[in-house]
Amino acid sequence: MEKKPVIELIIIGNEILSDPSRDSNSRYLINTLYEAGFTVDHISIVGDIIKDIAEVLRVSSQRADIILVTGGLGPTSDDVTVEAAAQASGLNLVFDEKVFKWIETLFKRRNRHMSGSNRKQAMIPEGACILKNEIGTAPGILIEVKGAEIFLMPGVPVEMKKLFAREVLPRIKESFQPSPINVETLNVTGISESALYDRIKSIPGAKEAVNFYPGAGGIELKIVTYKDSPVDAASICQNIQDILGELVFSSNGESLETVVGKMLIDKGLTIAVAESCTGGLIAHKLTNIPGSSSYMLCGVVAYSNDSKHRILGVDRELIRVHGAVSAEVAAAMSDGVRKISGADIGISTTGIAGPGGGSKEKPVGLMYGSISFNSVTETKKLQFFEDRFINKSRMSQAMLDTVRNFLKKR
């Protein structure tokens, strides 16, 4: 078919309806489809109610060519997507022996007992096409309603991604011709979304082509242009990089911790982390990267004043005079963790994550970070807001970026 397909996403789950930030599937699908030359036209979020899901499927099938559904394929009572799809399509649910045998095989491979509730996952709309889920018990399902192809996929992100890549996207490409599309990605940190927009808005083509995705890991810029666009994505991307300079930490979608890890390996350096207000989040991010054992030596969560003294060697008098939340204590923490671990670099965080614990002199969101290397110790003061989770995320990102900028100078 030559026409551009109308593609709709339907994200199922009460947990998503009550907190849309939990949804990572739609972003993955949008980005992956973009890169393949397709765009998403509609997104719906629906709770775990059969009649609501069925109604959305019926409405969507009247306007969409491809409907991608995630979630609600599990074995529990609130997993009702298959029943809703059967209702919307007018198909009966039938027991599929092959699917059931596959589920049994998965449990045997994992040396686990299969619950009777898993039998539900072998109930399939009659005549549907089964899409094999290689790593989970919920099979993907393809049915057709009023000419629209409906793909039911698991809500578990790792299962959905693998199934989409292997089973769904190839079918879309067989049925529809991708539009010529150019996509560039930049990851930026250390600047607000509004300030970022002000700096790049005058770039020719940027207003139409640049999409902003702010998050805990900074801001992702997705630059999308088409065959008839007056300025191509690569040109816009280069202009943005020229303007933002060091604020750009990746042009290939890599996380900041991945970039920092590669830099540490390239320079043959090791790192240790002493955290108070971030509670181990920096160490968590660094060790999420495969191969991090070659550069990550030690992570200490020194939350109390006593642990700062006993583990890191921070002088009690320093804490008494300046307070635990201070540049002086942050510097002593980074220096201490570097010395006790034998790492080349030590970094630290201390602050008031919130929402309580602040004062006029030291308000909630006040945080200090430090980096220690040989005889050089540098500290920085940051002021965030009152949300504890956001403050921890932003501080961990800020310190990883501090390490990145430090390493670029070495």
Concise account of the structure shown:
With 410 residues, this protein is α/β, with parallel strands linked by helices. 40% of the residues lie in helices and 24% in strands.
What would your notes on this structure say?
The chain is of the alpha/beta class and 410 residues long. The protein has three domains: 7-175, Molybdenum Cofactor Biosythetic Enzyme, Chain A, CATH 3.40.980.10; 181-250, Alpha-Beta Plaits; 256-408, Alpha-Beta Complex (Maf protein). It is built from 15 helices and 17 strands. The chain has helices at residues 14-18, 25-36, 50-61, 81-89, 97-109, 157-175, 193-200, 206-209, 233-244, 256-267, 281-287, 305-312, 316-322, 327-341, 388-408; strands spanning 7-12, 42-46, 66-70, 93-95, 123-125, 129-131, 140-145, 148-153, 181-188, 210-215, 218-226, 248-250, 271-275, 296-301, 345-351, 366-373, 376-383. The strands form four sheets. It has a six-stranded mixed sheet with strand order 2-1-3-8-7-6, sandwiched between helices. Strands 14-13-15-16-17 form a five-stranded mixed sheet, with helices on both faces. Strand 7 (140-145) and strand 8 form a beta hairpin. Helix 3 (50-61) packs across helix 4 (81-89) and helix 10 (256-267) runs parallel beside helix 15 (388-408). The longest helix is centred in the C-terminal third of the chain and has 21 residues, at 388-408.
